[in-house]
Amino acid sequence: MKKVNSSTGFDWIDSTLFDSFIEPIKMSKNDEKWIFIDRKIEDILDEMLIIYEKFSSHGNDYTSIPGSHRTIKVSILGEVTINNCSVCHYPKLSSDEYRKIIFEFLEKDNEFREYIARMRLFVDTIV
Q: What pLDDT is stored for residue 46 in this prediction?
């Protein structure tokens, strides 16, 4: 998601970039009780999805611009379609509030990645 943001210029707020990547993960999590065997990883993922829920009004506050979509192949998710968006009148949250949510999510993502790296090192050291 970060690579797509930096390489394509899709903005976090003025596009469906965030939703396009996180919604499939949320749906997968809703379908299965556990995704990971490590409880701590599962807890961090749950915390990330709680943060993502704060972003849920974005779909009502921003409307996709027809003809602005782009489909990108992503290794884990397959094809991801991203649209540019325009803000509606009187959005529930401001663009700064949405950016704050995404920043909070990305901080939790860093925690997620750091924990996995520590666990990988720990497991590799044991073997």
A: 93
CA atoms of 124 and 120, how far apart (whole Å): 6
How far, CA to CA in Å, does 119 sit from each of 4, 13, 40, 113?
27, 33, 10, 10
Is residue 73 over pLDDT 70? yes
Residues 6+ apart with CB under 8 A from 24: 77
C-alpha span between 57 and 13 (Å, rounded): 12
DSSP code per residue over 74-121: ETTTEEEEE-BEEEPSS-SS-HHHHHHHHHHHHHHHHHHHHHHHHHHH
Give the predicted TM-score (pTM) of the model. Answer: 0.85
Tokens 């720990």, residue located: 122
pLDDT tens-digit profile of 101-111? 999 999 999 99
